Structures are given as structure tokens and as C-alpha cells.
Amino acid sequence: MNNSIEIVPAERADIPEICRIASQVWGKVYSELLSPEQISYMMDMMYAPRVIESELENGHLWYLVKLNGSAVGYVSIFFKNGVCKLDKIYLYAEVRRSGIGRAAIGFVKSEAKKHGAKTLILNVNKYNTAAQQAYTSYGFKHLRDEVNDIGGGFVMDDFVLSLDIE
User: Fold this and answer.
1) What does the buried/exposed string (b/e) look like for 94-104 if buried means 16 or more CB atoms within 10 Å of the residue's CB?
2) Domains of the chain: which residue ranges?
3) For residue 110, what pLDDT is reported?
4) Residue 59 has what DSSP assignment?
């Protein structure tokens, strides 16, 4: 079977699809790492339609990841001080470990290079070992530990990972 992977720019009309994917993926990814209250808080903080719309209007680039024409995930990036920040990358569980994540990272590196970035960074939860292993396999290196107060009595306890863009 020949699988066709596409990564296409998301537009305002795609916000409901992004929200649908996020609601299905997020709970599964973080249910063992974060409290239900923190998951709910972060979903509203990052995935309320108004938030995504504002990001689209203010320089964040969102993309839908498609497999054979169907959305199976999303990516969000932005640029600051010559660095590309991979802000979000999530895929449905059933397509993980299929090469789609690697293709998405390759796409992000290409976009970063087009925008003149020399470095790609991302945050990953310190306890999300599966994601850490994937990022390490893509060549990311530990840059620093970071704890960010996100309000509501919650923090994001992350590693910041870095990848030099050739």
C-alpha cells in the first residue's frame, strides 16, 4: 500500500479539525502525566478556537498533517530571533511510528531553513519519555530544563530540546 503524506498550511476554516484532533490526542498523551484539571486548563489555553485564530493572525504557522487525504495530526511553528520554535506536533496514536513524525520534522526543518533559522527548538514534558525518544532519534539534543508557570496553579515541567539545521 502506497501511503501519501501531505503537510498543508492550515487556515481559519481548519480550526475545528485541529480542535477535534487535539481533543482526541491530548487526553491520551497526557492522561498519565497531568491531572484532568491541568489537561482541561491547557486545552482551553492552547486550543480554544479563539487562541488558534489569534495565533494564525499573529505569525504562528499551523499545518495539517494528512495521510491519504485525511488529517491525522497537526504542527504549529513560529520564529523568534532567528530560531524556529516547534510549538506543537501531535499525531493520532494509530499513525505514530509509521514515519509520519519523521516526515513532519523534516518538513519543519525545511520551513525553518526557508525562514533563515539555524536552530529548531521545542519543549517536551520531562515525563513524556516516548516523545523524548522520538525527538532524540530525529537528532534533537537536550538544551536545558525549564519550568513555566502557565497560570491556574499549573506549571509545564519541560526539557527544551534543540536541533541544528544544516
Assistant:
1) ebbeeebbeeb
2) 5-117
3) 96
4) T
